[in-house]
Structures are given as C-alpha cells and as structure tokens.
Amino acid sequence: MLQESGEQGSEVAAEGLALEVVAALQGGYLLAETRQDEQPFALALDMALGWVKAHARADR
C-alpha cells in the first residue's frame, strides 16, 4: 500500500517491513502478557510505527 501510493520507496521490501512490524508487535504483546504490564506492547507499537515512518519517503 505504501509503495502503491508513492509513500515508500521501491527499494524497501514491503514483505520484509511487514514481517519486522509483526515480529515487534508479537514480542511486545508476549512481554506485556508475561509481565502483566502494557508498557512493552506500547513501546513495541511506537517502535514499529517509527520504523514504518523511517522507511516512508520524506518527499511526499
């Protein structure tokens, strides 16, 4: 979707980026459940969103 709209450069593999985001969110969720604390998931979500934004084109 980001590639189609022009927000993401074609050099970034969309499948790889999606896998990285899902892995971060799953890890954050697992830690949050284990610790009974939502902070690990919130941190993972912030990191994942930042990672996607970092791979988006700056010149939209």
Would you write up a description of this structure?
- By secondary structure, the chain is an all-alpha fold.
- The chain has one domain (15-60).
- It is 72% helix and 0% strand.
- It has three helices and no strands.
- The chain has helices spanning 2-5, 14-35, 39-55.
- Helix 2 (14-35) packs antiparallel against helix 3.
- The longest helix is centred in the middle third of the chain and has 22 residues, at 14-35.
- It is elongated and about 40 Å long.
- The chain starts with a helix and ends in a 5-residue tail after the last helix.
- The relative contact order is 0.20.
- InterPro entries: Tet_transcr_reg_TetR-rel_C_sf (IPR036271).
- The number of E-state strands comes to 0
Instruction: List unreliable stretches of 5+ residues.
Output: none
First and last CA, distance? 14 Å
Q: Work out the helix count.
A: 3
Overall pLDDT: 83
Largest sheet: none
Q: Please state the overall shape, judged from the principal axes of the Cα atoms.
A: elongated
What series of H and E elements makes up the topology?
HHH
InterPro entries: Tet_transcr_reg_TetR-rel_C_sf
Summarize it.
With 60 residues, the protein is mainly α.
Keywords:
60 residues; mainly alpha; 3 helices
Strands, helices and their partners?
Blueprint: H1 2-5, H2 14-35, H3 39-55
Helix pairs in contact: 2-3
